[in-house]
Amino acid sequence: MIRPNFDDIFMELAVNLAKRSHCIKKHVGAVLAKDTRIISIGYNGPPSGTHNCDEEFPVEGCARDSKGSCTLALHAEQNAILYAVKNNTSVEGSTLYVTLAPCLACARIIFSMGIERVIYMYSYAEYKGLPFDEGVEFLRKFGVEVEKYQNEFSVEDPLI
Length: 160
Known about the structure:
Elements: H1 6-18, E1 29-34, E2 37-43, H2 53-56, H3 76-86, E3 95-100, H4 104-112, E4 117-122, H5 124-128, H6 134-141, E5 145-148
Parallel strand pairs: 3-4, 4-5
Antiparallel strand pairs: 1-2, 1-3
């Protein structure tokens, strides 16, 4: 039997978490791990206690801001970090596994929280039609280890 490495296990979990998203445009999942242990998980969607976009706005989704982003949703990495902090769990020194590279705003939060490593599956820039991944470049500039996940496995959800 071949034992999977932790990067594969945590990225596969992030892909499965993305399937929980209620966003009608993109499903994103995130896992925060430290010392081979999961410390928090998240997926993109509206704050807990509000409403789910696919139920409230099933055709058009929630309203968009001036940059075309959702006005209601939290990003998967934001949800994972917020849940950890809410439960008094330090994310400093952890690794973030996320299905979509962090945007610049999330990158600032990741850096500020002391997350040391980010592994992402797909490019945020390609998804948004941007010239490069601003968040990835920000993190690298300030010493956060960032890598694109290279292994392949089946992703059945077309929105991931």
